Amino acid sequence: MSKLLWEKTRELHHACEDHIVGAAMSLGTPPVQWYADWVYSLKVIHEFIDTQMPECTKRADRLALDLEQLVTANHIKAAHSYVELLKDKDDNYIQGVGYVLLGAHLMGGEIMRRRLINFPTNHLTWDDRKEALDVLMSLRDREESVDGAKSCFYALLSCMDEILIKATDK
Question: How far apart are CA 57 and CA 63, in angstroms?
C-alpha cells in the first residue's frame, strides 16, 4: 500500500522531529511556555482547517481546552501568516495540510500523549480513533495534496523557530 504523501514529505517530517522544539515535544520534556506556544500555533491553524475537514478530525476545541490549562501562550505570528496563505488555497491543498496535522496527532501524538505526563493532551485523544485513521488513510495517496502537505511542515518549522526565538528573547 502506497504512502505517497509520507514519502514526499519524509525529509520535512524528520526536520520537524529534529528541531529543538519538536524534539523536546517528542521526548515529553518541553518547557511549559514552549508547549503553550505550540498548542496555540496548532489551534490557530486548526481553527481554519477544521472547517474543511471531517468532524472526527477536528481539534480546535480540544486545543482550546489544553490552552485553558496552560500558562498564557505567546502570539505566534507564523501560525497566523500560514492561515492567511491557506485562505486562497483549494480543497486539495487543504487536504494535504489536514493529512499532516491528522497524522501528527494520531501517530506521533499517541506516543507524545504518553510522554507528556504533566501536560494537557486533550487534542491527542479521540472519540473514534479508527474513524480518524480511516480519514488519514484516505488522504495519504493524494498527489494533488503534496504541496499542501509540504507547506504545513514548513509552517510548523516556522512556528517552532518563532517559539525558540521568543524563548531566547526573554
Answer: 12
